[in-house]
Write a structure and sequence with these properties.
- This protein has 176 residues and is an alpha/beta fold.
- Helices cover 39% and strands 18% of the residues.
- The strands form two sheets. The chain has a four-stranded parallel β-sheet.
């Protein structure tokens, strides 16, 4: 019998041998969905990863890369994209497809019900900010996949939490 206290374990490997299948269990690794503004804060020095939790896995969708790619200053854009690449462990697809925003191969054909609810709630809080479509896609991916969202956007934090998403509190990660 296996007793585990204060540690979550998940199936993290399945290996096939001649004698049968062996399932390997390992500690649960927290996954954080990083919002685009976090990359800006890291470049500006107002946020540091030194105090981020250990044994974490940072993820993003194509949305974060696309938003950073729109930065008009080429030097800053290069810094932002390099920082994103160095921080992110993997890219996950968005859970819905939005024409004109989603990338083929980087999105799922969801029914958009959750995305629509998230976007409408964001619109009600911030007077239909122009990137609510993108923010709703990021939040939806975090919610559906059980990732903790790390954001500096107060409205996105509120909406994500209302829909059951864990959101990292930034104050404990801010640089002094």
């Amino acid at each position: 019998m296996l007793f585990v206290y204060n540690t979550a374990y998940i199936l993290n490997q399945k290996k096939q041998f001649d004698s049968g299948t062996v399932y390997m269990w390992g500690p649960l690794q927290m996954k954080y969905m990083v919002d685009t503004n976090i990359i800006n804060w890291l470049i500006d020095g107002t946020l540091s990863t030194e105090n981020f939790p250990q044994n974490t896995h940072f993820v993003a969708t194509h949305i974060q890369r696309d938003e950073l790619s729109k930065t008009p200053d080429p030097t800053r854009k290069h810094q932002l994209l390099n920082r994103l690449d160095s921080l992110i462990d993997s890219t996950v697809p968005t859970e819905s497809t939005v024409l004109g925003t989603s990338r083929l191969g980087s999105c799922k054909l969801g029914n958009r019900a959750l995305h629509t609810q998230l976007k409408e709630r964001l619109d009600s809080l911030n007077n239909k900010k122009r990137n609510n479509f993108e923010d709703a896609l990021i939040a939806e991916a975090a919610i559906v996949n059980g990732h903790t969202l790390i954001t500096a956007d107060e409205h996105l934090r509120i909406v994500a939490q209302e829909y059951g998403c864990a959101v990292a509190l930034l104050d404990k990660y801010r640089s002094a």
